[in-house]
């Protein structure tokens, strides 16, 4: 029997991972079908006007916003039917910068960045840049890298090397080595990367979908039909997603940055592009994603009644995960690599799903 899953997002800004107004990307998914979803939303917002329910319209209208606690309580009765994935986009950009500029040399030397060392180092650097460094250094470092990653070129590469030298002098001594390592990675850039396609290293949507589908698969759901808003940027990566969800992948277990490993092949029967106006299930995910994004951004502090209901109702039982800084730091140097690392295995997986030899 086919299980329908519904998805929608909030805060997707493409490769602009430093959007000042949308610092979090949130992907909400749900098994709540169209009929029940429509009833939940109509009951919560009986005076809502519009062709479809949209969170930003509800948030912008005081009479609708005051009914959000009612919505939260209603959703809480279906807590087991939701999963929310979130990404701190600034932190995600830091991870990507360190991964693509530092990891190749460590790989070549026989070390495993993806054993957890890379995640721990990212936390260490984020702590140093936000707690120990002068104000603005974290933002300046990320902005300099983003400018290069969005439009990679040799001119941009040399400019970034010079900028990192300047920023290094402002950094705490404990993390200056990171700037040196990134400068070395830029000097050797052409040994490991090509400019063509490098902008794709800023992608966050497909990996988020992979995490969400992996969550539902680990819950034991099979024959999944994924229903996603057609206007979403997700479908720009349709070829990669088709490879990841192909049955040709074969039996594999793929470790991920945060959470349990994902078992392949994924039980995806179809991925469907839906007009959100025609799917209340997708609209419900829009409301969940928008509300969650406000919560992660600390925008609910002026809504104490809403926060109280979120904490005391079944809403608090909704499962979630994501990518954001933590206090997990490296314990010594990276471990030696033993065979293929996580990225090697993912590349093999995509090649198999695309019908190419590994």
Can you offer a commentary on this structure?
This protein has 358 residues and is of the alpha/beta class. The protein has a domain of 113 residues. The chain is built from 15 helices and eight strands. The protein has a six-stranded mixed β-sheet. The chain has a two-stranded antiparallel ribbon with strand order 5-6. A hairpin with a 7-residue loop joins strand 5 and strand 6. The chain is globular.
What is the fold's blueprint, element by element?
Elements lengths: L2 E8 L13 E7 L3 H11 L10 H6 L1 H4 L2 H9 L5 E7 H20 L8 H16 L4 H14 L3 H15 L7 H12 L1 H4 L12 H14 L5 E6 L8 H7 L7 E3 L7 E3 L3 E7 L5 H17 L7 H9 L6 E5 L18 H12 L5
Parallel strand pairs: 1-4, 3-8, 4-7
Antiparallel strand pairs: 1-2, 2-3, 5-6
Describe this structure in a few short sentences.
The protein has 358 residues and is an alpha/beta fold.
Mean pLDDT: 94
Q: Which structural class best describes the helix and strand composition?
A: alpha/beta
- How many helices does DSSP assign? 15
**Approximate strand percentage:** 5-15%
């Amino acid at each position: 029997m086919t299980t329908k899953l519904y998805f929608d997002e909030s805060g997707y800004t493409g490769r602009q991972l430093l959007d000042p107004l949308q610092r979090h990307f949130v992907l909400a998914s749900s098994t709540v079908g169209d009929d029940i979803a429509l009833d939940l939303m109509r009951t919560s917002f009986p005076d809502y006007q519009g062709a479809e329910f949209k969170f930003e319209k509800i948030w912008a209208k005081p009479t609708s916003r005051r009914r959000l606690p009612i919505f939260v309580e209603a959703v809480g009765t279906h807590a087991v039917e939701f999963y929310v994935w979130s990404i701190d986009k600034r932190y995600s950009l830091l991870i990507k910068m360190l991964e693509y500029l530092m990891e190749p040399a460590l790989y070549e030397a026989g070390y495993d960045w993806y054993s957890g060392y890379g995640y721990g180092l990212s936390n260490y650097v984020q702590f140093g840049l936000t707690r120990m460094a002068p104000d603005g250094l974290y933002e300046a470092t990320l902005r300099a890298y983003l400018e290069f990653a969005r439009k990679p070129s040799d001119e941009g590469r040399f400019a970034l090397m010079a900028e990192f030298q300047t920023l290094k002098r402002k950094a705490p001594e404990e993390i200056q080595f990171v700037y040196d390592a990134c400068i070395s990675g830029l000097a050797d850039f052409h040994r490991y990367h090509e400019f063509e396609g490098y902008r794709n290293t800023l992608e966050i949507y497909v990996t988020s979908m992979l995490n969400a589908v992996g969550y539902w698969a680990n819950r034991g759901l099979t024959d999944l039909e994924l229903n996603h808003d057609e206007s979403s940027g997700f479908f720009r990566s349709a070829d990669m997603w088709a490879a990841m969800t192909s049955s040709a992948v074969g039996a594999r277990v793929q470790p991920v940055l945060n959470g349990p490993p994902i078992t392949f092949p994924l039980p995806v029967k179809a991925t469907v592009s839906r007009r959100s106006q025609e799917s209340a299930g997708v609209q419900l995910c829009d409301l969940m994603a928008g509300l969650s994004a406000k919560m992660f951004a600390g925008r609910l502090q002026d809504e104490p009644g809403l926060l109280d209901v979120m904490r005391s109702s079944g809403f608090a039982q909704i499962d979630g995960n994501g990518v954001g800084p933590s206090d997990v730091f490296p314990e010594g140097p990276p471990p030696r690599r033993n065979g293929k690392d996580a990225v090697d295995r993912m590349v093999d997986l995509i090649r198999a799903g695309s019908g190419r030899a590994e």
